[in-house]
UniProtKB/TrEMBL annotation:
Transmembrane segments: none
Source organism, top-level taxon: Eukaryota
Stored Gene3D superfamilies: 1.10.1410.10, Beta Polymerase, domain 2
InterPro entries assigned: MTPAP-like_central (IPR054708), NT_sf (IPR043519), PAP-OAS1-bd-rel (IPR058920), PAP/OAS1-rel (IPR058921)
Poly(A) RNA polymerase mitochondrial-like central palm domain residues: 3-118
Pfam families: MTPAP-like_central, PAP-OAS1
Domain PAP/OAS1 substrate-binding-related positions: 131-246
Name of the molecule in the record: Polymerase nucleotidyl transferase domain-containing protein
PANTHER family on file: PAP/OAS1 SUBSTRATE-BINDING DOMAIN SUPERFAMILY, POLYMERASE NUCLEOTIDYL TRANSFERASE DOMAIN-CONTAINING PROTEIN
């Protein structure tokens, strides 16, 4: 069962075609670079997952580019010769400005200058390579995302629930602490549920260095780790190299 919860070739192809279509559209009309990030290039998306794209521009013209991207998509919405159906286009004027639309029944979320998202994608790829075991890290993220979304209904930042990044951080923590005993996604799910169901969320939050008492914030003072700090997955050298690369 756990090996069935993975992206199929058909869904992968469909999302790649949608990404290429939006990239070509924006590059040609707005003349800026567009990159995918998040769960689709990481291959950890669910069937209901959206596509995250970010455009790179000069921050001083970001507002103009938001309007330009929105206008281009609105034109495409009424283009009868368009390859794909584009609909439900709207701007989200939040701290992180975004343009959302639906292309071929897939939600596409376009942000601007979100380099952090690209860096996170690269970092999680490095972690997956470090873990190995036939992409155990990614397969575990998919299984736990599926449980959180379809079974427990706790995943969905736009509904005030757990964000995907928060969930990936929790899964990363489990691997960081217990990687030597993890060999299958179901084992990771079991450890995830067992550990975090007993965690004192009222008093603590999680960091890779261990639980952090909320009363110590903004200073991050980590408690002694579960395994005493021995046999951790992510060494100081690995984290330092990633920080320098990304």
């Amino acid at each position: 069962m756990e090996n069935q919860i993975v992206p199929t070739l058909a869904t992968d192809h469909k999302r790649k075609e949608v990404i290429k279509y939006v990239q070509r559209l924006i590059r040609k009309r707005v003349r800026c670079e567009v990159f995918p990030y998040g769960s689709v290039p990481l291959k950890t998306y669910l069937p209901d997952g959206d596509i995250d794209l970010t455009t790179l521009s000069c921050p001083s013209v970001e507002d103009a580019w938001v309007s330009d991207v929105h206008a281009v998509l609105r034109e495409e919405e009424h283009n009868e010769a368009s390859r794909f159906e584009v609909k439900n286009i709207h701007c989200i004027d939040a701290e992180v400005k975004r343009v959302k639309c639906i292309v071929q029944n897939i939600v596409v979320d376009i942000s601007f200058n979100q380099l952090g998202g690209l860096c996170t994608l690269c970092f999680l790829e490095q972690v997956d390579r470090l873990v190995g075991k036939d992409h155990l890290f990614k397969r575990s993220i998919i299984l736990i995302k599926a449980w959180c979304y379809y079974e427990s209904r706790i995943l969905g930042a736009h509904h005030g629930l757990l964000s995907t990044y928060a969930l990936e951080t929790l899964v990363l923590y489990i691997f960081h602490q217990f990687h030597s005993s993890l060999n299958a996604p179901l084992a990771v799910l079991y450890r995830f549920l067992d550990y975090f169901s007993r965690f004192d969320w009222e008093s603590y939050c999680i960091s890779l260095s261990g639980p952090v008492c909320k009363s110590s914030l903004p200073d991050i003072v980590a408690e002694v780790q579960e395994n005493g700090g021995d046999d951790l997955l992510l060494s100081e050298e690995f984290l330092r190299n990633c920080a320098e690369m990304f």
